[in-house]
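pinned: reference chain
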Amino acid sequence: MLIEGLARLLNIKDFDHISVQDIADEAALNRATFYLHYPDKNALLQAMTETRFRELVERRSLTFSDCEGGLRAIALGVCDYLAETTGCPSQLKKMPVEGSIIPVVEAIFMEGAKNHPDVPGFDKAMVATTTAWAIFGAARRWIETSDRIPAEEMAAKIEGMVKPILLNVSKAASKVGL
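pinned: its structure tokens
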């Protein structure tokens, strides 16, 4: 109820101008109930972002278990999520959504990394983090562009920019015979 209340308020107000009381009122709950679940409105925003992004990932069946096309699918998921989140890029700039999206994307990469051997000198978590931030950063820049290209086209560009990170790990693995 709190997440849905915040979502409705974000359609009519800037996040900075929404109070905990506004959210509680919109959800037809009292402030005490809000504070039983979240320490502040930023924590609620993070929970909302994570929930909605995970739902999009599930709806699109995005995984990284199949490397062929997986990177593009994940990039498209991030682009789609940012495009669906708000119709107003200036509102998005004020919302700390990366703290919710990045961990989900990292988890997708870590799940996929289980299908590959460890590579000496490469920390899988570091590769997942680097890749997730690169995807998010490019998608965020894309969503803030007024004359942006279609999401599918951007996902292909992101794939082209980010794939060398993963190929570098693959090359290192082949050099050590993994």
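why pinned: The longest helix spans residues 151-175. Residues 61-175 form one domain.
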